[in-house]
Structure formats: structure tokens, C-alpha cells
């Protein structure tokens, strides 16, 4: 009689121990995965974000601080419109809170964004950014939000504009030089 009573208790103890070990392994795996994702997001120079269906930030990566001066905590729960100049809102609204997926989703769309106001800079500073985003849907195909990336392209745009100005100056000087050379070749030689 003693052995039959001990077997269920022993089996229960083994199952409890197995469950505890599996839970500890699962927690360790979750911690490693979380740490890896955190390191990845901290390494990105682009801003990774998620907004809910109403356009409020659910998540913003730490790169937002370098780009616009906000901490992720300042933007979590805030509407994305906080970052958009009023004159750009209609253009940006469907880019940042994109509902489309697949090839129709926003890819590398140019959007102006506002840096956080600083006491030393009374005027709001605009940043040229490139946004790529796609809509998120639940199992019933209801829009639940948007995932996206924001890349600062202000420097690239400034470089492109500088190159275009320099090329235009070079074209004007080349035209003048060719015109001057053409006039000199039409002059009679004094020999």
C-alpha cells in the first residue's frame, strides 16, 4: 500500500520539477531575445516606430533622440502629428500611419518633421526624413496600427542641392568659356 501511494506523489513531483525547469528555460530565452532586440534597436541609426490605429506612438526606438530631440518615453502615447508641421500634416498622415501592406505600403517617402523645441532655438527646426511604413492587421483584418522606419535625409538633400548648384555654376562658366573661345577663333589672325 505504501508504494502505490508514493508513485502518484513522485510523478507529481517530477512533473512539477519539469514544469519549473521549462519555465526557467523559457524565461531565459525570453530575456536573451529581449536583450538581443534591445541591442539591435539601440544600434540602428534609423528610427523604428509603431503607432496604434489612432496614430499614437506605442513604441519609438532610442534613435528618435538623435533625430528629433525627443526621448522615446516623451512620445509613447503621443499622436504622431506632434512631429509634423501643420502645413505637412495632410501629406504625412497616410505615410506615417500607413494602412497599406506589401508593395503598396509607403517606401522611402519624403516627409518633413519637427525637432523638439529648444529654449536656445525659438524657431521650430524642420528635418527632412524618409519614411517607410506598413499597416498592421489582426486576424479579422482590422487595422491595429502601423510599423515604420524613419531615416534622416537632411544631409543627403543638402549635399544634392550643393552639387546641383555647383554643376549649374560649372555649366555657366563652361558656356562663357566656350563662347569666349568661339569669338576668339572667329577673329582674323594678324600674321
Overall description:
With 191 residues, the chain is of the alpha+beta class. Helices cover 49% and strands 20% of the residues. It is built from five helices and five strands. It has helices spanning 2-43, 63-68, 72-75, 89-96, 154-186, and strands at 47-52, 57-60, 109-114, 126-137, 143-152. It has a five-stranded antiparallel sheet, sandwiched between helices. A hairpin with a 4-residue loop joins strand 1 and strand 2. The longest helix is centred in the N-terminal third of the chain and has 42 residues, at 2-43. The model has no long low-confidence stretch (mean pLDDT 80).
Summarize the structure.
By secondary structure, this protein is an alpha+beta fold. The chain has five helices and five strands, in the order αββαααβββα.
Query: Going across the major beta sheet, what is the strand order?
Result: 2-1-5-4-3
Strand residues, percent? 15-25%
Radius of gyration: 30 Å
Instruction: Quickly count the helices.
Output: 5
The arrangement of helices and strands along the chain is HEEHHHEEEH
Keyphrases for this structure?
alpha+beta; 49% helix; 5 helices; elongated; five-stranded antiparallel beta sheet; 191 residues
Please describe the topology of this protein.
Elements: H1 2-43, E1 47-52, E2 57-60, H2 63-68, H3 72-75, H4 89-96, E3 109-114, E4 126-137, E5 143-152, H5 154-186
